[in-house]
Design a protein that fits this description.
The protein is an alpha+beta fold and about 950 residues long. Helices cover about 40% and strands about 20% of the residues. Strand 7 and strand 8 form a beta hairpin. Helix 2 (about 110-115) crosses helix 27 (about 845-855), helix 3 runs parallel beside helix 8 (about 245-255) and helix 24 crosses helix 32 (about 895-905).
């Protein structure tokens, strides 16, 4: 249940919409053939039906029959804007409590029932204006989803008590430590909002609240908040997906109709704060790189000027083609990153320019350059090309949001609350249609003045936090008189509804063909929205790095968008932005990938760009030197983040010196400095070859259309020189249990990485391993996460997983725990591991975790990007296409005995390496107390 940082845009939908006339969507026809999208009369719209029950509960139905899935998206129209003074974080804490049990769904059972039904995208979130609760279920579970949602809304107050409150206070405080205090720049963002908003304004505090306020919330406060805000007349449910509207209306009335409405809601009226003189502050944090934030108050969501500022944000910092990226990152090389956004909310918005500086760069110089660009945009309108790039990007983002029923439901719910109209898309589009270069410039001149802003300079130094708030002992039982009810008891609700008739469980199939040059093409067609995703996958990952050249594979992949023989880096960025597409490159452990995603109309030009990057890289010396500086700074940034550091040290310790996978994918400072054009080109010539690659494409393209696109682009591709002799990765060395501690003085949490060698892809018992791991630590409801989070309150979340590659296998448990319980958390973790190996799962647990893997499969392949990622990873791991389509049969065959054998074979406590990154003074005695002799290593994994 993640709280969005106050400075991020959780659901700002106006920035996702575009000029209607530029859209090319299929016309509405039979609902079984197309999504709930229409372009009648040139307007982009979501076909929906809104109902209001007698008790004020709003329901919006969006029929979409592309997949046998239904998204349930419940918005309660309450957030920090509704919190009382001294109760920051209340709305977000309440979000957590909503999952802690209700009258008819005992504590912990909500998430277990969602797992057992094959649910996906199950979570909640809070922003300043609302709290939402969502999951997606197979379409035959419509009644179950409504039963669960109605019990959360109507009968949660019956079960919340001092025990569940204390537990979730611990969990939320751990979330705050993880998201703010142990995350680089977390306290900087909080300080910015405190400087923007005065005392008493509901947006002043972070959504998650302060430790003192979270800990100070009483059970009586929770009950009062529920009586006021968690009532049917203050909530809206969107159902989006494969259902019959008549049946849905009847079931909604059955499950929500008897809920009693609440009192008239207190009106929230808050004037937009005025800043008449620039406010400047310096915040020190445990960071490696300094950061500049410039922030202004701007118009509320959908108010005049909001759309223009969205466009301005794109022009200034909307990607590699933007002005500030080109100036600060590419040309001057003063910045590591640039982000610009209009974070729109109901009471007022914030326009934020965020620049992370390179080592040694002056924030004063950066600020001067940023000021000049803002002033230039205020004085001179953006070009038509810049406006077109922004609109193209916005258009693609909107359609991608409609591709998934979960995000489609959230889109509709946002319009309903923020604009008062779930069908607001057409009017929103009109705002962007009316935005002109002159109006963007005038809006910037009006709102982004130096006298009206906050300037935050984040610098490396001591992290200054308020005094520690003690964590009280967890109560063991509820007190007398803690129960109350808002709604009458209805005996029939005690039994969960059964599932309807399930539709056949099928996964998106793919076909494969090979070009004459040896390039494998994998194609999964998907009609509907005019979207296409593609990935060129090459066996050119970290494992292919030559001895003594760590990071080379990643360096080569990073250089591909930085110039080809015919295009500069800037031209590549501008061409991508003009298509409204995304084009990214990366290198993982075993493969390199070039990924494209965009509209079908841009597929030809997008794939041409992808081919140009892969086939004709320039490796120009100036770009190499710029990339060196970028990568050296990224190495420094990695040291800031305890979870990344824990994982890096774990790899180094477990694989051993000299292994290609032992070092950071970025390499080392020495290896980065040693790279030149000849080294890069040599790796590219050896590894970027058609017989060593696969092009994976999913979306609205037939095979004939795809062949016509790719033959001219890739057909003549030939590898340069002789192909290298394939040398398998050396095996991970046999290891014994070991504990390593990396000191991070003052850290409020300990980041843990518990790792061991694991099986490779294609192992016969892969399905048994995955089902077993789901029970151990793979699911939110797993044994480890339940014990450490829900029972003990030690962590915000901790999970386990198996990485199975072609030549690489690893098991890992990763998460962060409160510093003072590091030893206790590890002891509990070991008990769960031993328990997993000691006895078979019971029938109920096995059924739940097996179904969580099996029935959720359609929801895991519900976008083009997900399909491409699945088949790309499958090819990289050396598996046949059928490995994906046969997953249902494999999961269905798992038994308690086979899962136990998998645990005993692939989960050996004697081979687990524990890496803990935390405060040595506090953590080392705990490790010794549980019998773990720890080696203290530095951030490089050395004594």
């Amino acid at each position: 249940m993640n709280a969005a940082p106050a400075s991020s845009r959780l659901v700002h939908l106006s920035a996702l919409l575009a000029l209607a006339g530029t859209l090319s969507l299929p016309a509405w026809s039979a609902p079984a053939a197309v999504p709930a999208v229409s372009t009648a009369a040139g307007q982009l719209a979501v076909r929906q039906e809104k109902l209001t029950l007698a008790n004020g509960f709003e329901v919006i139905l969006v029929e979409d029959h592309r997949l046998p899935l239904v998204a349930f998206n419940l918005w309660v129209h309450a957030g920090p804007r509704n919190e009382a003074p001294g109760q920051t974080g209340f709305a977000h804490l309440f979000e957590h409590l909503m999952f802690a049990g209700s009258r008819h769904v005992p504590r912990g059972e909500f998430d277990r029932r969602v797992d057992a039904a094959g649910g996906t995208d199950s979570n909640g979130s809070t922003n300043f204006d609302r709290t939402n609760y969502f999951f997606t279920l197979p379409s035959n579970q419509l009644a179950l989803g409504l039963w669960l949602k109605s019990d959360m809304l109507g009968w949660m107050i019956d079960e919340v008590d001092s025990v569940s409150l204390a537990n979730q206070q611990d969990v939320v405080r751990n979330e705050r430590r993880q998201s703010f205090e142990n995350r680089p720049y977390g306290i900087v963002e909080e300080a910015m909002y405190q400087a923007l908003y005065p005392e008493g304004h509901p947006y002043r505090a972070a959504v998650i609240g302060s430790h003192a306020d979270i800990q100070g919330i009483k059970l009586a406060d929770v009950k009062a908040f529920a009586r006021t805000y968690y009532r049917p007349n203050n909530a809206t449910l969107v159902l989006a997906g494969d259902f019959d509207a008549k049946q849905a209306r009847a079931l909604v009335q059955k499950y929500f109709g008897s809920l009693k409405p609440g009192p008239k809601l207190p009106e929230v009226k808050v004037a937009m704060p005025e800043i008449t003189k620039e406010r400047r502050l310096v915040v020190t944090d445990r960071i490696e790189l300094s950061r500049l934030d410039l922030a202004w108050h701007t118009p509320a969501m959908f108010a005049a000027g909001d759309a223009e500022l969205d466009m301005a944000a794109h022009v200034l910092g909307g990607g590699k083609a933007s002005r500030l990226y080109g100036l600060l990152v590419r040309d001057k090389q003063l910045a590591q990153s640039v982000e610009v956004g209009q974070s729109s909310q109901s009471l007022s918005s914030v326009f934020d320019i965020e620049v992370v500086a390179r080592p040694g760069a002056s924030l004063d110089e950066i600020e001067t350059l940023v000021d000049a660009e803002v002033a230039r945009l205020a004085a001179t309108p953006p070009t038509e090309a810049e406006m077109a790039q922004a609109r193209a990007t916005i258009q693609t983002q909107l359609l991608q949001r409609m591709e998934k029923v979960a995000s489609l439901a959230d889109l509709v719910n946002s319009y309903n609350q923020m604009a008062g109209d779930p069908g607001y898309a057409g009017r929103d589009l009109a705002r962007y249609a009316q935005a002109t270069p002159a109006s963007v410039s005038a809006t910037v001149a009006k709102w982004l003045q130096k006298a009206h802003r906050v300037v935050v300079l984040a610098q490396p130094g001591e992290q200054v936090l308020p005094p520690e708030v003690p964590t009280p002992p967890m109560p063991t039982k509820a007190g007398k008189g803690e129960r109350e009810s808002l709604n009458a008891l209805e005996a029939w609700r005690s039994k969960a509804p059964g599932a309807g008739k399930a539709k056949p469980l099928t996964l998106p199939a793919a076909q494969s063909f090979t070009l004459a040059n040896g390039l494998t093409v994998i194609h999964s067609p998907k009609a509907g929205l005019p979207l296409v995703s593609a990935s060129l996958v090459l066996r050119a990952g970290q494992g292919a790095n030559p001895a003594g050249q760590p990071g080379l594979a990643s360096f080569v992949a990073a250089m591909l968008p930085e110039g080809t023989t015919t295009r500069s880096a800037q031209q590549i960025a501008e061409a991508t932005a003009a298509l409204g597409a995304t084009l990214t490159t990366q290198a993982g452990s075993e493969e390199a990938r070039l990924d494209f995603s965009g509209l079908k109309a841009s597929a030809k030009d997008g794939l041409a760009l992808l081919a140009d990057l892969a086939l004709h890289p320039a490796f120009a010396t100036p770009e190499i030197e710029r990339q060196k500086a970028q990568r050296l700074a990224a190495l420094a940034q990695a040291r800031e983040q305890a979870p990344l550091l824990a994982n890096a040290v774990a790899n180094r310790v477990s694989y051993g010196e000299g292994h290609p996978l032992a070092l950071n994918a970025l390499g080392s400072e020495a290896s980065i400095q040693a790279v030149d054009a000849a080294v890069l080109r040599g790796f590219w010539q050896a590894r970027y070859r058609p017989e060593n690659a696969a092009l994976v494409v999913a979306g609205d393209l037939s095979e004939a259309e795809l062949r016509a696109l790719i033959e001219p682009l890739f057909g003549a591709w030939k590898g340069e020189g002789a192909a290298p002799v394939a040398t398998p990765l050396p095996p991970a060395r046999p290891i014994a249990a070991r504990t390593v501690l990396v000191d991070k003085p003052g850290a409020p949490q300990t980041a843990l990485a518990v790792v061991a060698p694991g099986p490779f892809a294609g192992v016969a018992d892969a399905a048994d391993i995955k089902v077993m791991n789901a029970a151990l630590g793979g699911l939110f409801t797993s044994r480890i996460n339940t014990q450490l989070r829900e029972v003990k309150g030690y962590t915000y979340g901790i999970y386990s997983g198996y990485t199975m590659g072609r030549e690489r296998g690893q098991f890992g448990i990763r998460g962060s725990v409160r510093t003072d319980v590091t030893g206790a958390a590890l002891a509990d973790m070991w008990k769960e591991i031993e328990g997993m190996r000691a006895r078979p799962m019971g029938a109920a647990e096995l059924g739940r975790v097996r179904n969580a893997q099996l029935l959720s499969l359609p929801g895991l392949f519900d976008t083009n990007g997900a399909v491409v990622a699945g088949y790309a990873g499958n090819w990289s791991a050396g598996q046949p296409l059928s490995a994906i389509t046969e997953l249902p049969k494999q999961y269905g065959a798992v038994t308690a005995a086979s899962a136990l054998r998998a645990a005993q074979r692939h989960l050996d406590p004697a081979s687990l390496i524990v890496v803990a990154v935390g405060d040595r003074a506090k953590v080392l005695p705990q490790l010794e107390a549980i019998g773990r002799k720890a080696e203290v290593l530095n951030a490089e994994g050395k004594p």
